[in-house]
Amino acid sequence: MLSFIELIGAATCKENGVGQAMKLLIEMMSKGCKPNVVTYNVVVKWICNEGRLDEAIRFLNKFPSYGCHPDVISQLSSREACALVKALNVLDMMPKHSCTPNSRSYNPLIEGFCNKKSVVRAIEYLEIMISWGCYPDVVTYSIFKGCPPVLIT
């Protein structure tokens, strides 16, 4: 039988990531091993860490259908994911309402992605920010200073 530790190992493996963890989760269930809320929370965390926030929220909403109910940790993960999704939606709507986003608009979003270790997404929004003629400020640079190291060209 697959253990919780094996699931964590698969999720943290750079080569396999969440996809492998999901396969293990399905295999666990097919062999009669019922995952608990802790197992599901690990999967949600790693989905969020890959920047797949909508998918994380959908997965959280399916907890009851798996016979499992979200706990405090699940709720915190979902709030963080929802906050980023809402920030993305607000940012997308701003130009439609003649409101030009500035660094204060982008910084929380960039910080959210950095906190989720989704630095590539953070850099994407930095590039979008610059393409709108909005340049990074001291806060933006300090956010990236706290991100995991990446090569920025």
From TrEMBL:
Protein name per UniProt = Pentatricopeptide repeat-containing protein
Identify the stretch annotated as signal peptide in this record: none
Source organism (scientific name): Sphenostylis stenocarpa
InterPro entries in the record: PPR_P_subfamily, PPR_rpt, TPR-like_helical_dom_sf
Which keywords accompany this UniProt record? Repeat
Q: Where are the PPR repeats?
A: 36-70, 102-136
Identify the PROSITE patterns for this entry: PPR
Which Gene3D superfamilies does the UniProt record give? Tetratricopeptide repeat domain
- What's this protein's family per the entry? Belongs to the PPR family. P subfamily.
Q: Which domain of life is it from?
A: Eukaryota
